[in-house]
Amino acid sequence: MSKFFSKHGATLATTANDKETDGPVTDLDEGSLYLVRQAKRQIGVTSAVFLIFNSMIGTGIFATPSAIFSLSGSIGLCLFIWVAGMLIAAAGMTVYSDLAPPSLVTAVRRITSNTSTASPDSWPRDSILDTSSYLDGQGPTPWSLVNISFMLREVNRWNQRGVGLACITTAFLIHGLALKLGLRLQNLLGIIKLLIILLIVVSGWVALGGGLKIDKPHNFDHAFEGTTGSAYGVVTALYNVIWNYIGYSNANYALSETKNPVRTLKLAAPLALGSIAILYMFVNIAYFAAVPAEEIISSKRLVAASLFRNVFGTKAERALSVFVALSAFGNVLSVIFSQGRLVQELGREGILPFSRIWASNRPFNAPLTGLFEHWLVSVIIMLAPPPGYAYNFVLNVISYPLAVVNVFVAGALIHLYLNRSKWNWHHPISASMPVAIFFLFSNIYIVVRLSYHPQTDKAFTSHCLTTFTA
């Protein structure tokens, strides 16, 4: 077995002074760090931007604004909540970027420079971050898979999930067998997604100019009328906004395949998040300019579909379903790409059993076993639960722990800042103490406030208990 994996790209870093070896590895020690020989680095700034872009923009921006508006009660408060969510996401991006280099950038240095490995004392905290990041990424894929079914005319349990299964299987095979093709397809879908969102923004400008097939809704005349007094409604709306930004750390998990990873991450992450934040605000303004407030709240269709119908007519509304499906598929491609590499990183760190298998990059120069793990988990989540309460419960159990994980990640970074000399915590990407504290307390507020529903909503509060029990 050891000979097989020594041929298939898995090597073992033993001590801080030993260099990597190309020979077979026969002994498996607990906590050993497995490395994969360097793959050809193919991710530049553009691909990293689209990796984040595709991960963050799935189907949420086409659907969730109506729920966020309904929870906030007014357009003014709704837009303020989107700004607050953007600030929390920006803080999260810098926190995760700060914590990414110890486990991933140093791994790049170990593999590419063939010098000494990271100190064994640093492995536990790296492993904690990798595990937290793994848990953080398990949610978006099943959600996007289900929402691909917007393209179906008649949705039932099995055609909806059948489309999702075909989608994630295709993404798994593309990234597992053809790395370059997968990256190019991600970039192409990212461009298509950007064009769709720009079309929505332009549609909003047309609506503001009076180019509507319905009477002008005049939603901005009384922007704060109807503002909710419910703290629970506001924090739920805020959480829904943050969910639209999930994926800001997606490029962190592929740094071992990134050209000049520190420079690329410094450029790609702020560029992607900043551009998406601006687009999200313009998209919301476009929705309010083209769709009456009552229709946004009461309609069972996507708010984006209502906009297209009101500006371009019913044919454009039907065409939107194809655009939403492409957007969701781009999201699936991006998430499974990163999660496969994160599972591989857990294998390299010796956290997973049979670490050589998870760390291997063979036979197609891609983390096939890591991609398979994410495929399997997503398929189980998608197919196993029955529709209704049980399925919503599973999705909530996936999403709510993200905020819990963020609390511990922010707390860990603050601990490292307070003990810089002990942990020798010096690297080129720094979030700063104020940003880490802001991210910590933002997520504490979300975790605490969402754990109590004023009307005892069983479908939401039960998963909170499940999270803390686990």
UniProtKB/TrEMBL annotation:
One of its GO terms (molecular function) is L-amino acid transmembrane transporter activity. GO terms for cellular component: membrane. It is found in: Membrane. It is a multi-pass membrane protein. Its main location: membrane. The chain crosses the membrane at residues 43-63, 75-96, 162-181, 188-208, 228-246, 267-290, 319-343, 397-418, 430-448. Signal peptide: none annotated. Keywords: Membrane, Transmembrane, Transmembrane helix. InterPro entries: AA/rel_permease1, AminoAcid_Transporter. It holds the Pfam family AA_permease_2. This is Methionine permease. The gene is MUP1.
